[in-house]
Design goal:
By secondary structure, this protein is of the alpha+beta class. It has 2 domains: 10-146, Gcn5-related N-acetyltransferase (GNAT) (Aminopeptidase); 159-320, Aminopeptidase (3-Layer(aba) Sandwich), CATH 3.40.630.30. Helix content is 39%, strand content 29%. The protein contains 14 helices and 12 strands. A 12-stranded mixed β-sheet has the order 1-2-3-4-5-12-6-11-10-9-8-7, with helices on both faces. Helix 5 packs across helix 10 (207-225) and helix 8 runs antiparallel to helix 10 (207-225). The structure holds coenzyme A (COA). Residues 193-194, 196, 263-266, 271-272, 274-277, 299, 303-306, 308-309, 312 line the site of coenzyme A.
């Protein structure tokens, strides 16, 4: 019997009149998300509709492509310029966002990468970042064949909060809302403490730049990006803090009460004494008191202190992405030391 010729995936710019109504089915096709949705009490159809709407909205201002095979959407990719990252690192950077292929449709990835990289080169970008579901080993292989290199594994956790929890911080720790006078000390603590970050792991990004990006993010959180900032004091000294974000659009669309723990950090001199645990318990109580019933967060899988802290506090592992970088210049891959020199 003659072999059936495989149908190649057709990759082209998104057209909302053609694609918008087909996006939810693409988001619904990822069975690997079922556990997360169960843990977080998220309705898969509402989530798919929300994500589809977000992609359609973003597509009005950023290049977005879909892959289609036999009349079905099987892949998605978008290109975004990272302006403030570029300013700190000293060269133009971008991100391939929404990078996904439906289960069993990995071979749509290569033509999507080719198109996104072509657009990035035309935009004169030097560096791209991207992430893909860690379940998708085949896609990861394709990314490495296309000279993308892994820079970290990002894990997602979620915990349901106990509405009655009223933990006052133990271990002599006091936890209070942040004040504008805390700023310099909080930035100092953040700067000395946060090394477990895929930006820092990328050999092409200068260490000075990645630290400046992180510092700016913390400043943005203190300036209002974070809905809550909790400060930990020990014997009158500020020794740590936690930033909480609120995904308002997501909560409104899904009817959820999710808060996002963006960052928890302790000053270097008080780490390793269990204070992280006391701080997290106090923050759980405060976040629950402000009306949220769960917290979700992301961290790097190799951040053992953070992962074990969350495990001790009942967090469930709900997702895992592999994060990649791609250097688009002709020069070869540099080592971290060469890049920072
Ligand atoms: C995350 C952080 C707040 C934890 O605070 P901490 O009180 O110092 O945490 P600990 O050192 O007590 O470690 C927490 C848990 O991880 C374990 N742990 C720490 N380092 C570990 C390692 N290298 N390997 C395995 N387990 C480790 C500890 O044993 C502890 O588990 P246990 O309570 O079951 O004994 C602190 O490490 C920090 O400020 N890190 C830098 C900022 C950061 O990465 N934040 C998270 C990003 S979202």
């Amino acid at each position: 019997m003659p072999k059936r010729r495989p149908v190649r995936a057709l990759v082209r710019p998104i057209a909302l009149d053609r694609d918008a109504a087909r996006l939810p089915a693409l988001f619904r096709s990822f069975d690997s998300k079922a556990y997360q949705q169960r843990v977080q009490g998220i309705d898969p159809d509402r989530l798919a509709a929300f994500l589809a709407e977000r992609v359609a909205d973003a597509a009005k201002t950023q290049l977005t492509w879909t892959a289609e095979r036999r009349g079905k959407l099987v892949g998605l990719a978008a290109l975004q310029t990272s302006h403030w990252h570029s300013a700190h690192c000293g060269f133009p950077m971008g991100k391939v966002t929404q990078l996904m292929t439906a289960p069993g449709e990995h071979d749509a990835l290569a033509p999507m990468l080719a198109i996104a990289e072509g657009a990035a080169r035309r935009a004169k970008l030097h560096h791209l970042a991207g992430r893909i579901d860690a379940h998708d080993f085949h896609a990861q292989e394709i990314l490495t064949q296309h000279r993308w290199y892994p820079v970290g594994t990002s894990v997602k956790f979620a915990v349901r909060l106990d509405p009655a929890s009223a933990a006052d911080a133990a271990e002599g720790l006091t936890v209070r809302p942040h004040r504008s006078s805390d700023r310099a000390r909080l930035l100092e603590i953040a700067a000395q403490s946060h090394e477990e970050n895929h930006l820092h792991f990328d050999p092409h990004l200068p260490s000075k730049g990645t630290h400046a990006i992180f510092a700016q993010w913390v400043e943005m959180c203190l300036d209002g990006q974070a809905a809550q900032v909790w400060v930990a004091e020990l014997g009158g000294e500020t020794v740590g803090f936690v930033t909480i974000l609120v995904p308002r659009a997501l909560n409104a669309a899904l009817g959820t009460k999710i808060a996002v723990l963006d960052f928890i950090v302790l000053a270097a001199e008080v780490k390793g004494r269990g204070l992280g645990s006391a701080l997290l318990a106090a923050v759980h109580a405060k976040v629950a008191q402000s009306g949220f019933d769960q917290i979700e967060l992301r961290t790097t899988a190799t951040n053992f202190a953070a992962v074990n802290l969350y495990a001790r506090h009942g967090y469930r592992l709900t997702g895992c992405d592999q994060v990649f970088g791609r250097w688009l210049r002709r020069e070869g891959l540099r080592t971290r030391a060469e890049a920072s020199a």
